[in-house]
Amino acid sequence: MDEIQIASILKSSELFPIPQGVKLSYGTAGFRGDAKLLESTVYRVGILSALRSLKLGSATVGLMITASHNKVSDNGIKVSDPSGFMLSQEWEPFADQIANASSPEELVSLIRKFMEKEEIAIGENNKGAEVWLGRDTRPSGESLLRAGEIGVGSILGSVAIDIGILTTPQLHWMVRAKNKGLKATENDYFENLSTSFRCLIDLIPSSGNDKLEISKLLVDGANGVGGQKIEELRGSLSNLDVEIRNTGRDGGVLNEGVGADFVQKEKVLPVGFGFKDVGMRCASLDGDADRLVYFYIPSDSSEKVELLDGDKILSLFALFIKEQLNALEDDEERKQSRLGVVQTAYANGASTDYLKHLGLDVVFAKTGVKHLHEKAAEFDIGIYFEANGHGTILFSESFLSWLVSKQKDLTAKGQGGSEEHKAVSRLMAVSNLINQAVGDALSGVLLVEVILQHLGWSIEKWNELYKDLPSRQIKVEVPDRTAVVTTSEETEALRPMGIQDAINSEIKKYSRGRAFIRPSGTEDVVRVYAEASTQEDADSLANSVAQLVKSFLGSS
Ligand SMILES: CC(=O)N[C@H]1[C@@H](OP(=O)(O)O)O[C@H](CO)[C@@H](O)[C@@H]1O
Ligand SMILES: [Mg+2]
């Protein structure tokens, strides 16, 4: 790193002094916290993303300013690798180090060491870095984005491009497309969704179409960016009647009493929905539209909703994909294609039983989509979902090329109209529709909708795939959540010593009891999850485990 470069970082970092007494960690999904304290973090992640681009031959890297389902006064930042996936976990320690560097000099020294270790050069012979920056609708987003731009710009020769207000998955999709040399604008994203949706609609068997009159879908946009983007997309979609509420334009506050996180955790109606909507098919997105859950109001006697969470969306997708694979009649090898599903410890036990019953390979990963994504990528078709509604379907490159050649073969043999050809075409359309980079509520909604139309199913019928075991989640505020250390699958606590034995004794008291604790990676809390055969038991088990957490760790 030469003197001019050092001077550039020293000068710009003076603009963003680090707040006192804040310890930042890249966490489950990037840095998050009170927006007022984040400028220096975003500036520094701007530097990191420029270095990441240089490391990967000046490929485009994405920077997304969002705190997803957190309250509106929070914000956050996450990095999209050139592949469109999350930032490589190998770089997270560096992200932590520079975010916490206490002075401009320390920052420079950390960057210098890291560049040496990673053999990153900034110089005339290299092309500069390119970083695309997006943000959600939070009011703090604009000034944070400027801080990110200044961070990128402090690495000489780098270009920062402001892509504007986007959903997180849109930015990931655009970055992935750009680096694959494909059309990568927001319009291209919309066009890709509407074309592949249309294709799947056209492939619906006519008997499926007759069974169900297409009823209106109600969408809760969490007062965030997702509802606004569906509004933009709606014009180019036929066969989908959708009404969008909580777009954020009608005075509602982001994530307050609305959105996928609220509906999934509280299992009650979001603001803007009422008894007039009994029986309607409803979907809820989160603040940055990478999560999706469905729900309906079963009767007009309570606020409670019937929730169709990420597990149920995963089950619907798995069923549909399996049906298509089964139709590949004459190809034993590909019929055996490895279709696998990935869940976390938060998956409802009944969903896991159901998926295993379907004959699927079910594997578990740690919380956080980066962990699920990695495992799903090991299959020909890997479907992953967190119970909270974040997930997608990954198709391996080799499976996709097989599909392409199979489609050609069948057409050449005059079997263009065969069931097998249709199944191949459906799988190809799904791979285009569903966001291969990250979970995406927009593409998720479209896939759910077209599968329901294909099967001729109502939301109630879909809900009957299996019955959720009653569950309860609680957040416990403690002085130091890092005092909880878990096993790699997060189902057992190794520390504090003795707490797991105490939890086990509680679990034993309940039929189908299951419970675990883990420190949140996005909030300053310890999370408690419990499941049992009745809601009262799940609540009571969760409460007693929460008490244990308080007595072992103290309450704050
Ligand atoms: C129980 C739960 O819902 N945890 C969420 C939450 O992580 P925590 O580490 O539990 O705070 O936010 C993550 C990012 O959105 C998401 O991936 C994850 O599933
Ligand atoms: Mg989100």
Automatic annotation (TrEMBL):
Provide one Gene Ontology biological process annotation.
UDP-N-acetylglucosamine biosynthetic process
What InterPro entries is this protein classified in? A-D-PHexomutase_a/b/a-I (IPR005844), A-D-PHexomutase_a/b/a-I/II/III (IPR016055), A-D-PHexomutase_C (IPR005843), A-D-PHexomutase_C_sf (IPR036900), AMG1_II (IPR049023), AMG1_III (IPR049022), PAGM (IPR016657)
Q: Which residues form the Alpha-D-phosphohexomutase alpha/beta/alpha domain?
A: 55-92
The catalytic activity, as recorded, is: N-acetyl-alpha-D-glucosamine 1-phosphate = N-acetyl-D-glucosamine 6-phosphate
Which pathway does it operate in? Nucleotide-sugar biosynthesis; UDP-N-acetyl-alpha-D-glucosamine biosynthesis; N-acetyl-alpha-D-glucosamine 1-phosphate from alpha-D-glucosamine 6-phosphate (route I): step 2/2
Gene3D superfamilies the UniProt entry points to:
Alpha-D-Glucose-1,6-Bisphosphate, subunit A, domain 3, Alpha-D-phosphohexomutase, C-terminal domain
Where does the record place the Phosphoacetylglucosamine mutase AMG1 domain? 184-293, 309-457
Give the matching CDD domains.
PGM3
Q: Which residues form the active site?
A: S68 (phosphoserine intermediate)
The entry's Mg(2+)-binding residues are S68, D286, D288, D290
Protein name as annotated: Phosphoacetylglucosamine mutase
PANTHER family assigned to the protein according to its UniProt record, in alphabetical order = PHOSPHOACETYLGLUCOSAMINE MUTASE
Domain Alpha-D-phosphohexomutase C-terminal span(s) in chain numbering: 474-547
Task: Name the positions where substrate binds.
Answer: E386, A387, N388, R518, P519, S520, G521, T522, R527
* Family recorded in the similarity comment: Belongs to the phosphohexose mutase family.
Cofactor binding remark: Binds 1 Mg(2+) ion per subunit.
Q: Which cofactor does it need?
A: Mg(2+)
Q: Give the species.
A: Arabidopsis thaliana x Arabidopsis arenosa
| A Pfam family this chain is assigned to | AMG1_III
Keywords of this entry: Isomerase, Magnesium, Metal-binding, Phosphoprotein
Query: A GO molecular-function term, please?
Result: metal ion binding
Q: What is its EC number?
A: 5.4.2.3
Could you tell me what this protein does? Interconverts GlcNAc-6-P and GlcNAc-1-P.
